[in-house]
Amino acid sequence: MVLTRRAYREKMEVSRWLPNELLVQIIQHFSKAEQATLCRICKLFRDLCLPVLYRDVKIKNTQSVHSFCAGVIENPSRADTVRSLVLDLPYNPYTRIRRKLILTSLKLMLRLTHLSISPCVLDNRHGGRCALLEECSLPRLISCDITVPRWGVLDSPLQNSTADLVAVFLARHPTLKHVRIQVDSYDSGSCRMVTSPSIRVSLPNLECYEGDAVFMPAIDAMDLKEVRLVWPSKDEDIEKIVTRISPMTNPDVSFICSHVYWGDRSLDQIMTAVSTHMPHPRTLRLRCFGTFPFSTLNHNTIRRITECLPKFTKLVHLAIHHGRDYYAASRGNKDKDRVAVKRWGESCPTLEACFLNYYAWRKVGGRWEEYSIEEFWILAGLPDLTAYY
Amino acid sequence: MVLLVTSDNEQFQTEKDIVERSVLIKNMLEDVGESDQPIPLPNVSSSVLKKVTQPSTGPTEIDVRGRYLSTASTTVESPSRPPILEQSQDETRKRTTDISEWDQKFITVDQEMLFEIILAANYLDIKSLLCRRWLQDGSQHDQGARPPEEIRKLFNIVNDFTPEEEAQIKKENEWAEDR
Asked: Which among A126, A275, A371, B111 has the fewest CB atoms less than 10 Å away?
């Protein structure tokens, strides 16, 4: 501690007496606004803060996006430090988004590994091209999250073209490991991201796909470890799509399979298709999105699940939630759920833990005991309990 | 209990749970196994170790992966909150939702001690002590850092920007003010 005593005697100039790497560690804990302030203290702090400030960028308003992009274009060296860019802009009919500015700055970010764009950035309703999807090429992109504006999907003339543009964008990025494609719509069950039949997207590194299930057949992957599929409310292709996905997974590798669906009929179809054509997931999650908040599974559906479960070869965690509000005061019929879980455990010997509606159980010495939902979620490798997928 | 020996040869019997907040000590204990032998900490003085090993009464992280934090714990970032400089009673009162009583005691240290804690936290590898609030002001700038001129004054940092350069860097990074 001799060093700090000397520093104290010599009036404690922090930047001289704390090593740079330690200052950087401390800076990393600050918010973006605080990091921006620290950049203005002195040149040393600016040099230490700027790479941290620009590494992970998340912007939520249009004016800030324009300011950020203009700054990057003016100082291209800043673009090199950006690794993650999240443009989470709300829809505002009175604000004009300068999409060319965004595209120009994105083209400079050659080391970007994560890109997330909200629908406003892709909006081409007024006849403009969706240049970002058409032209952007990011050689190191590992993860992308694209929310497509619903008008691009619902308007029938654009239906294929928007999905195709997304597909072509993905095809330019074979480095991708994690892809999330969704439609910006509260009632996304009615939207379908269908690509033209000739479109094929080769993503040899893809490990996780999240989003619209009907978009998935356009992708060619080799070693999927996780799929989180949102099924449209009216679709007869569940079996066809599951059959298409199955060869992209490796039965010897732990696989997580999540489904969001819109009613008991879809649940029947999903259980039948997955148990028949892709029976090797370690974790299976089924979430109904078209029911009343506190509704529970009906007797026939429970029976149907029981019939399908023996076909699963490696199923360890099963999560089924029918109600929407996990923290509701009214939490369904626990005893009835326990009976269902017990029956499922008998049907599927590999099953070790189960979440149903509002409670989690695990098998201990042959008996099903209630346990922590949070622990279940972690062990099952699932995302946040309240996450859409 | 674990026996720690500081640079000024003072010995401390400390609970294992507490000392294991230090990755360095945790690794040492794992390597050595169960032992009565004291662990020497040649880079940490007794006064600093007392601060560093004070048990926190504050909330702890629920989940190491940052998931499932309930609404009540959304402000929790680490088992113990980091030090900031001494605050007046009024200033402190304004932050009571954010800083526990233990944290308030912990952070009322002079600059020399603050620097020693930061260096010790780095040596002992205690991430939670290497956190952010050491430059924060709890009064007018509740959600942000002190203004640059205050930080410069506090730590005797010379402003080597020209006014134009400073204005330029402020303008370039305005996007970061977006919350």
From this structure: A126
- B164 Cβ partners below 8 Å, 6+ apart? none
* Cut 0.90: pTM above it: no
**CATH classification of A223-389 is 1.10.3470, yes or no?**
no
Query: What per-residue confidence (pLDDT) applies to A309?
Result: 96
Q: Does B122 touch chain A (CB under 8 A)?
A: yes
Please answer yes or no on whether A18 and B43 come within 8 Å at the CB atom. no
Shortest distance between the Cα of A64 and any Cα of chain B, in A, equals: 4
Q: How many CA atoms lie within 13 A of A337 on its CB side?
A: 22
Q: Which of the two residues, B147 and A279, has the higher pLDDT score?
A: A279
Shortest Cα–Cα distance, B11 to chain A (Å): 18
Beta carbons of B112 and A374 less than 8 Å apart: no
Burial class (CB in 10 A: 0-12, 13-18, 19+), B64: exposed
Domain boundaries, chain A: 1-54, 61-214, 223-389
A112-150 burial code (b ≥16 CB/10 A, e <16): bbbbbbbbbbbbbeeeeebebbeebebeebbbbbbbbbb
**A12/B112 CB distance under 8 A:** yes
CA-based nearest distance B55→chain A, Å: 22
Distance CA A174, CA B48 (A): 52
Beta bridge partners of A249: A224
Q: Where are the domains of chain B?
A: 1-50
Instruction: Give the pLDDT of residue A159.
Output: 52
- Which pLDDT does position B130 carry in this prediction? 57
- Of the candidates A242, A254, A214, A253, the one whose C-alpha atom is nearest the C-alpha of residue A230 is A214
Residue B59, pLDDT score: 36
Report the residue of chain A nearest B134, measured CA to CA. Answer: A26
Contact A256, A229 (CB under 8 A): no
Q: CA of B155: which chain A residue's CA is closest?
A: A13
Place of tokens 């920007």: B161
Query: Mean pLDDT of successive 10-residue segments in chain B (179 residues)?
Result: 88 84 84 80 86 55 27 31 30 37 55 76 72 46 66 82 94 84
Query: Are the Cβ atoms of A43 and B161 closer than 8 angstroms?
Result: yes
The nearest alpha carbon in chain B to A41 belongs to B148
CB contact (8 A) between residue A7 and residue B132: no
Min CA distance, A193 vs chain B (Å)? 30
Contacts of B159 in chain A (CB under 8 A): 41-42
C-alpha neighbours within 13 Å on the C-beta side of residue A373: 18
Report CA Rg, chain A.
25
According to CATH, what is the number of the domain A61-214?
Answer: 3.80.10
Question: CA A358 to CA A340: how far, in whole Å?
Answer: 13
pLDDT digits (tens, 9 = 90+) for A114-154: 999 988 888 766 555 678 888 899 999 999 999 888 765 44
Helix, strand, or coil (residue B177): helix
Complete edge-to-edge strand list for the sheet that includes strand B11-14: B11-14, B2-6, B39-41
